Fold these 2 entries.
Entry 1:
Amino acid sequence: MRRLARVLAMVMVGLPALAQTPNTRLIIRAQRQEVNIRTGIITVTGNVKLDYPARQIQATAAEAQYFTRERKIVLRGDVQVNQLGNTIKAETITYLIEEGQFTATPKANQQVESVYILDDPDAANTPLAATTPVEQVKPRFKQLVSPPVDIKTE
């Protein structure tokens, strides 16, 4: 446990901007975490939960890598990212911290799903489409104009 604390302390020394302000913390929880001090890469696997309060980002994934030198986070495996009510679901999502940019890629033959909360002040003033109540489910048939004719076949 002491060794892990020393490794994490060494990583944090290499990341002074992140260590100085509590607002810029990147919180990562997972079943397994590895830190490579030479490369500056933190790899986490198993039920990954990421919280980046400075950017109001929460994410879940099967695994993630944080590239400290490039300031990049790569999430893989059933990824879901939430930011200010907006969501992205994909197989892989890369987040470039400096640019504030997400790049998402789906599984083969699937699509990325995004839900965005739009600021549309005119939408509040636009009435919703009126719905007409259904009065009769069955179609009405035409009324007979003449009495039925008995057709005899020979």
Note: The domain at 2-119 is CATH 2.60.450 (lipopolysaccharide transport protein A fold).
Entry 2:
Amino acid sequence: MTDVPAGGAGAADDHAQLVENVAAALRADTADLDTYHRVLSTTIGDLLPAGMVEVERERASFSDRRSGRLGKATAIRLTIGDQTLELASRRGSLVATVSKEVRGVVISRSEVPVAEWVRQLALYLAQAAADSASAREALGKLIGE
């Protein structure tokens, strides 16, 4: 993942602005994991390859399962290459972690501020948008363009 696309200072400024706009849109939805999951799976679903997002849920009650309702989201994991971004609800607050994996072994895991987690996701999404017209369109919907 590169932070600055080829194409000179103007392209770098456009890329930086896109990353900031995406991060702002993503930050708005981090308060509730269920809402955040909906944003990741529907609004920007075109940007995310199949299987990239994993949602962990608390067990639904019997009546919820019977009605087809899923349990409440407790963690969201995104696998981006050798990196895993996880946003989890622990004791009523969000905890963001970033892990690096090599050949199936986690070699580093660090807790980061939610804003940094969002920034890293925004960088990935902006790069995906730079590489694909359909991804640009989906990202435009997210940031209201």
Note: The longest strand covers residues 93-102.
